[in-house]
Amino acid sequence: MSVPFDQMDGQIWYNGEFVDWKDAKVHVLTHGLHYASAVFEGERAYGGAIFKLREHTERLIESGRILGFTIPYSADEIDAACNGLLERQGFQDAYVRPIAWRGSESMGVAAQKNRINLAIAIWQWPSYFDPEQRMKGIRLDIAEYRRPDPRTAPSRSKAAGLYMICTISKHAAEAKGYADALMLDWRGQVAEATGANVFFVKDGAIHTPTPDCFLDGITRRTVIELAKRRGLEVNVRAIQPEELSGFTEAFLCGTAAEVTPIAEIGPYRFTPGEITRMLVDDYMAEVQPKRMAAE
């Protein structure tokens, strides 16, 4: 049985200090817990270096701004805290989770004067999906919940509250034997999975939904750059669910998922092919340049 996250060993960076893991606590009446006034990042370290750390840090700060608060640390300070904690934890390959939230100074919808807290935790986290199944292609259900109209939610922030429907959808998919779920948006167009962006391949070209109501992922942008380096055509556009029958390959990408082939989305079938496998390899080479060169 795995160790619960509140009982792991090591340290957490918490409001400017390194504290023992077990002591990194918040009160039950914390505003971020009750009203979802929290933003976070998901990052990975490879070979002792955090991939695209500054981009993640800048998005964290921007996510807080969108939710109406200012994180009381500069990007340089946050980067230094992440790197310092990675060194203290002693990991080469690890997952990095910064989170900022409104504290417990007052309780109610309005909390402008509550302290803005920032914590960073780092732990070892292997492949997000079953490693044996991953390269064969994972199976996705189609979620009941949809990504909301950006006029109704702060969709450009990596805000904790936006993941409520992701958790519900992933749990429902796993209960049916799927690994994840594909989410449509409020218009009925293809959006993303519960924690990763989605790509499709047809006739040697790549197609991916326009991120106008969900995060334009940092990994997503990296994969698009890698594809263009290969001279591949990348089409960022609205994708209708019925188009899925015409695609031959599909894959997810994200910090946790990395690049993961898809074999099935509801009634639609795909075969992990040359382009998907190329991008799996190219992405791993991008995030692990020193290691790949040594091998």
Defining key terms:
295 residues; alpha+beta; D-amino Acid Aminotransferase, Chain A, domain 1; D-amino Acid Aminotransferase, Chain A, domain 2; 2 domains; 8 helices; 16 strands; 27% strand; globular; disordered C terminus
Can you put this structure into words, describing what you see?
- A hairpin with a 2-residue loop joins strand 11 (197-202) and strand 12.
- Helices cover 28% and strands 27% of the residues.
- It is of the alpha+beta class and 295 residues long.
- The strands form 2 sheets. Strands 8, 9, 10, 11, 12, 13, 14, 15 and 16 form a 9-stranded mixed β-sheet that branches. Strands 1, 2, 3, 4, 5, 6 and 7 form a 7-stranded antiparallel β-sheet that branches.
- The chain is globular and about 55 Å long.
- It has helices at residues 31-35, 53-66, 75-89, 131-134, 164-175, 218-229, 274-287, 289-294, and strands spanning 11-14, 17-20, 38-40, 43-46, 49-50, 94-102, 116-123, 138-142, 180-184, 190-193, 197-202, 205-209, 234-237, 249-254, 258-265, 268-269.
- The two termini are 34 Å apart.
- The protein contains 8 helices and 16 strands.
- It folds into 2 domains: 5-123, Aminotransferase class 4, branched-chain amino acid transferase, N-terminal domain (D-amino Acid Aminotransferase, Chain A, domain 1, 2-Layer Sandwich), CATH 3.30.470; 131-291, D-amino Acid Aminotransferase, subunit A, domain 2 (D-amino Acid Aminotransferase, Chain A, domain 2), CATH 3.20.10.10.
